[in-house]
Amino acid sequence: MTTYDPPRPWIASYEPGVPEDLTPVTGSLVEIVESSAKEYPDAPALQFFGRETTYRSLDEQIERAAAGLAKLGVRAGDRVAIVLPNCPQHIVAFYAILRLGAVVIEHNPLYTPRELRKQYEDHGAKHSIVWTKVVDTVQKFPSDLKQSAIISVDITKAMPLGTRLALKLPIRKAREAREALHAPVHGTVPWETLLSHERLPATHPRPATDDLALIQYTSGTTGTPKGASLTHRNLVSNAAQARAWVPQIKKGEGCVVYAVLPMFHAYGLTLCLAFAMSMGARLVLFPRFDPDMVLDAIKKHPPTFLPAVPPIADRLLKRAREKGVSLEGIDVAISGAMALPHELVVPFEAASGGYLVEGYGLSECSPVLMANPVGDNRVPGTVGLPLPGTECRVVDPDEPTRDVAPGEPGELIVRGPQVFSGYYGKPEETEAVFVGDWFRTGDIVEIDEKGFVRIVDRIKELIITGGFNVAPTEVESALRQHPAVDDAAVVGLPSSKSGEEVVAAVVLDESVDDVDVDAIREFVRGILTPYKVPRRVFVVDELPKSLIGKVLRRQVREKLLDLTKS
């Protein structure tokens, strides 16, 4: 069987120094930190509230934590859950699990108990490394999800001594800050216990390049948990592609990366956990995005590389102006997850003296597939060019083996070393998103003669709000559980702050004359994490449906757009 090699017009648009293809990777993610520790042992690897961890110390902690996990019974191939915000322990836990040949499963620590439980039901992990604020939720899982061990992490212990002492002050502000960061726990293995072990023996087996490394959950279109199975090859390749895209950023101590995006998200994970460590960079960690906290850090160590989403870049720019803080030193900011407005790019680049470019990806692709060139030939309104080693085609969505004419819109399908092997434990769903060895993105695009890709529409009905995916069916299911709601349809409407906002149209039960829509929102808040809760709820008489009874969300969206304008 011959392999189809499509034309690659984008190669001619690459910036000087960016290679056409990627050298096939070898080894595993584990070698990323080990290599940087050998090359830059005394350089700062992590910075958290000002406290620094060197690469030598990071490597030591990873080996000790791996030995501690092995003592708890974690073996190669086992699945281990991480439920943590951005903190030094997160990086150590991630690489310690991988060092044993086990598989990481990342979770949003802000998920509701129900959302978290659904993912655990899917992957079945029996060991969890959990933020103290979430331990109680995991301990209350039903008996069939009972954990062999829960390792509890108090993230305040990674802070500088002065910060920890300030949190203990007997004043309201300190108490509130302390309660937001930590909760007392019992019946767990403290994180520090793992680090009390001797290093893992050097002879301990290591993961292979094609071993499963990570199960990354993506909402998909159904709202049911689907874990993208990503191998060491996938993630190491994507980190290498990112390095190749920014040859102007040099490896070593001068490279500074800011982790303002959550590392449980595929975008933050690859560019902070993998890319930054492979660069020997100083990774500055923020447990949540706080523009004042970021600006304080910028005064000392501005980021040479800033992964962000448009709302973060916008808030940072506005706050910098208010406080009179310079953004100079941000060499490259890459924006993903939603459209990047050109009216934000111009002032941001003027303030930083660097570049703010748009990229594109999916969890199934580790996640980065494309980015605009970091140079003057970038094209606003596009998601840029495929990264080195990435191949793309534009096909008829109804006949995905047939390419459309050049310049015509069609479904984007891709292949490359960063593309996943399938959904964990879901062969039918996996088969549905592949055409041969090409992955169907579900996005309708146009590619111009220079290879720049423009997103035109989405086949999938995902709502992307603030960089996070929301499946309409999941929100609709929560709405229908309200006793006053007979039916519901959820869509995304444009938002200047978050790209899209979640908006619902509901049909009331016949027995209900009127309802408090804010009460409906509060009801949903008890089921779903806050970013999935509809920002607005409209009561309608009926929902437009097809002949077979399927809600026509496109028509719902048009109707709600009209209502918001009136």
What does this structure look like?
There is one protein chain. Helix content is 31%, strand content 25%. It has 566 residues and is an alpha/beta fold. Among the domains are: 53-206, Rossmann fold; 463-565, ANL, C-terminal domain (GMP Synthetase, Chain A, domain 3, 2-Layer Sandwich), CATH 3.30.300.30. The strands form six sheets. Strands 7-6-5-3-4-8-9-20 form an eight-stranded mixed beta sheet, sandwiched between helices. Helix 11 (291-298) packs across helix 12. The longest helix has 17 residues, at 55-71. Its EC number is 6.2.1.3. InterPro entries: AMP-bd_C (IPR025110), AMP-bd_C_sf (IPR045851), AMP-binding_CS (IPR020845), AMP-dep_synth/lig_dom (IPR000873), ANL_N_sf (IPR042099), ATP-dep_AMP-bd_enzyme (IPR050237). This is Long-chain acyl-CoA synthetase. Residues 474-550 form the AMP-binding enzyme C-terminal domain. It is an enzyme of class 6 (ligase).
What's a quick, concise take on this entry?
This protein is an alpha/beta fold and 566 residues long. It is built from 17 helices and 28 strands. Helix content is 31%, strand content 25%.
